[in-house]
Amino acid sequence: MPRKEIELEHSIEHLSILDENGSLDQDLMPELSKKQLLRFHRGMLLARRFDERLLLLQRQGHIGTFAPVKGQEAAQIGAVANLKAEDWMLPAFREIAAILWRGTPPSALIIFNAGYNEGGKIPEQQRDFPNAVPVASQLPHAVGVAYGIKYRKKQEVVLTFFGDGATSEGDFHEALNFAAVFGVPAVFVCQNNHWAISVPREKQTKSKTLAQKALAYGIPGIQVDGNDVLAVYAATQEAVDRARSGGGPTLIECITYRLTMHTTVDDPTKYRQEEEVKIWEKRDPLPRFQKFLQEAGHLSEKDIDDLEKEIKEQLDAEWSEAQQQMEKLGNPLDMFEYIYAQLPPYLQEQKEFFSQFIEAQEEADHA
Ligand SMILES: Cc1ncc(C[n+]2csc(CCOP(=O)(O)OP(=O)(O)O)c2C)c(N)n1
Ligand SMILES: [Mg+2]
Fold first, then answer.
1. 244 classed as catalytic
2. What is this enzyme's catalytic activity, as reactions (predicted)?
């Protein structure tokens, strides 16, 4: 039998609309009103300032560890901005910008990061899943939700976020295969920030792009400049429209960079070069978008100053709110809640014992 070629389509598109100097490719500009553009800006700035605030709170000992979003705001806002209220969003653990955009108040995120379950409660009617810390575990969940939507013949879409590191997990491959075979309305948004803690992208996979992994599963894949909110928006819009109209899933690779530590317990200077960070600081999505908005006449220096002030006041109020709420929380008996609808007898017994123990302690303290 002869050897013969099987013809495969194998090119991957890379999309960039607003370059790192803030110059726009007019032909590719998606249709967006000034109001929408300014909403994107507010979403990105709020996420940046809130992230900085969380870092301060962590360093002051008010909250536990968290995964900063700094540098990835455009990849998140450009993607979720395409979702309607009835759509679903499944985050990994770095999706601060996306979560705020969807409507979770900053105070809830503070409370969650301070270790209280109550902070993790998704507001009623908001179709988001909780943070998924086990890498890539949210992808099969997203496909399950999307399968349910298709089964019920709804017009909803599921969007899930994950990192470059997540593409090495079995869950990623199983999820993409299942999503493709069953043609479910899912959008997979990979934020390739070049690092999975200390493992560089080059050691994660031999593939030239992460987007090309879509080809193996027979679905559309595209690579975009993830620090360009307009490119992310345009690529996700296509994917969301396709999913909603029955065209199945899409994989989007957003090229971005984590400008700071993996989490607050990580020291990136141990594994990456300062020069690399400097290059990516120049590609920061926020000043680039501000420059574009200023040149388009949509935003002035004064507008930015006013917005900074407004956001600072908002975050001060959120911190006060979080503190007030946390004063009412923190009952150690809560450890028995949230896992079982009905406690098994052995845990019920332990809960009663512990409750009496606490009471006895309190009495002793007041004696
Ligand atoms: C299944 C699993 N393995 C290992 C870890 C530890 N861990 C947490 S984040 C992370 C790296 C994730 O990298 P990536 O997917 O690129 O996301 P990023 O942190 O860059 O946003 C690892 C290995 C984990 N949380 N879950
Ligand atoms: Mg990563």
1. no
2. N(6)-[(R)-lipoyl]-L-lysyl-[protein] + pyruvate + H(+) = N(6)-[(R)-S(8)-acetyldihydrolipoyl]-L-lysyl-[protein] + CO2
Of 66, 94, 96, 135, best ligand 1 pocket probe by most atoms within 8 Å of the beta carbon: 135
Collect all residues with Cβ–Cβ distance below 8 Å to 108 and sequence separation of at least 6.
119, 120, 121, 123, 322
Helix (H, G, I), strand (E, B) or coil at 223: strand
Regarding the domain delimited by 13-327, which CATH topology (the fold level of the hierarchy) does it fall under?
A: Rossmann fold (3.40.50)
Q: Which residue of the set 258, 283, 340, 346 is catalytic? A: 258
pLDDT computed for residue 10 by the predictor: 83
pLDDT of residue 366: 83
DSSP, collapsed to helix, strand or coil, labels residue 225 as strand
Give per-10-residue mean pLDDT for the chain (367 aa).
83 95 94 98 98 98 97 98 98 98 97 91 92 97 98 98 98 98 98 98 96 97 98 98 98 98 97 98 97 97 98 98 93 85 95 94 85
> Strand runs (DSSP E) across the chain, as ranges?
13-15, 88-90, 158-163, 186-192, 195-196, 199-200, 221-225, 250-255
Ligand 1: does its nearest atom lie under 6 Å from the Cβ of 134? yes
Do 198 and 271 contact (CB within 8 A), yes or no? yes
pLDDT of residue 338: 79
Q: Which residues pair with 188 in a beta bridge?
A: 160, 251
Find out whether 96 and 131 touch, Cβ atoms under 8 Å: no
Q: Which of 242, 262, 283, 288 is catalytic?
A: 262
Query: What is the reported pLDDT for 151?
Result: 98
Which residues are CB-neighbours of 257 under 8 A, at least 6 positions away? 71, 72, 193, 194, 227, 280, 283
Residue nearest to atom 8 of ligand 1 (CA): 135
